[in-house]
Amino acid sequence: RPCRDKYMYRYTLEPLFPTEGLKHPAPFADELEPADGKPYERVTMEQAKRGTPPDRPVRVYADGIFDVFHSGHARALMQAKCLFPNTHLIVGVCSDDLTHKYKGFTVMNEDERYDAIRHCRYVDEVVRNAPWTLTPEFLAKHRIDFVAHDDIPYISAGSDDVYKHIKEAGMFAPTQRTEGISTSDIITRIVRDYDVYVRRNLQRGYTAKELNVSFINEKKYHLQERVDKVKRKVRDVEEKSKEFVQKVEEKSIDLIQKWEEKSREFIGNFLQMFGPEGALKHMLKEGKGRMLQAISPRQSPDSSPTREERSPSPTFRLPFFTKTSPSFSPHSSACFGGCRCVCVCM
């Protein structure tokens, strides 16, 4: 299977045949049956790169402390496993005595560190109580072909580089470190936030004695925890208040927007009705015209008919006139009464 990782080194294929490490923890070297009587013959780098027969995998050795086993350790072992097409990875873990002597105190004891390495899927074999400096006798005993480690000189035990003789022998296969994570970094985080982790474990039921905390400090941590609870409650109330205010603001904005829309609609309708050119003005003009038309008399024709055009007036008799009454011309200047009038002949 391909080794999918940005730290792939050289070959990217693991052995095609299944290994016990995928189903069971890797065995300890001192619990395995002794190798057959064949003499130990190392393979060269060229032979290892080309690939070896399935019954003769390239035996790669990687050692370390592996305290607080983390992804940086696992990536280093994965690179060692992927160095060659057919690799048998042997991992040496140093004991507590050697580690405390040359490097310092560990968080996990040696048994815990052995067990952590056994359960890494890339490991085929584990060497307990591994030596700090590799000797020819150790390499021959475990039939090691190559030693894998990062290329940075490892200064320890009075040596400028404990892998110097391995490099000179052509048995060194370099890997790359994973930046940003290491056991020292993890311990630094814990020490930096010591109070936080002490209070955390006190909450989880650990006693002050188990945590090596004095009585006064225990009370101080409990008080701090109660103060923090109050702070968290206040913070929760503040957050809820902010959420409530935010919701009110959102609703207020919606109401204002709706009010503005309705007000614009109302003003538009008002202007349409009562504006200078609104419907009310046209209605008043139309009503005024009808009223004036209703109360005003009809106008006379432009020209009156002439005397000749007029129809003759009907003739009638006066009751007090007789047939013997003299007739008068219509052009007479005076009548009986001495006035000027027009008399109608009987």
UniProtKB/TrEMBL annotation:
- Superkingdom classification of source: Eukaryota
Q: Name the SUPFAM superfamilies on file.
A: Nucleotidylyl transferase (SSF52374)
Pathway assigned to this chain's UniProt record: Lipid metabolism; Phospholipid metabolism; phosphatidylcholine biosynthesis; phosphatidylcholine from phosphocholine: step 1/2
Q: Which UniProt keywords apply?
A: Coiled coil, Lipid biosynthesis, Lipid metabolism, Nucleotidyltransferase, Phospholipid biosynthesis, Phospholipid metabolism, Transferase
| Record domain Cytidyltransferase-like: where | 61-189
Region (Disordered) spans which residues? Answer: 295-317
Record keyword Signal present: no
Coiled-coil regions listed in the entry: 220-247
Recorded hits in InterPro entries, A to Z, give:
CCT, Cyt_trans-like, Pcy1-like, Rossmann-like_a/b/a_fold
Give an example GO molecular function. Answer: choline-phosphate cytidylyltransferase activity
EC top class, in one word? transferase
What this protein catalyses is: phosphocholine + CTP + H(+) = CDP-choline + diphosphate
Q: Which GO terms describe its cellular component?
A: endoplasmic reticulum
Q: What is its EC number?
A: 2.7.7.15
Checking Gene3D superfamilies in the record gives:
HUPs
| Main function | Catalyzes the key rate-limiting step in the CDP-choline pathway for phosphatidylcholine biosynthesis.
Tell me which family the UniProt entry assigns to this protein.
Belongs to the cytidylyltransferase family.
Q: What name does this protein carry?
A: choline-phosphate cytidylyltransferase
Organism, scientific name: Sparus aurata
Gene name in the database record: PCYT1A
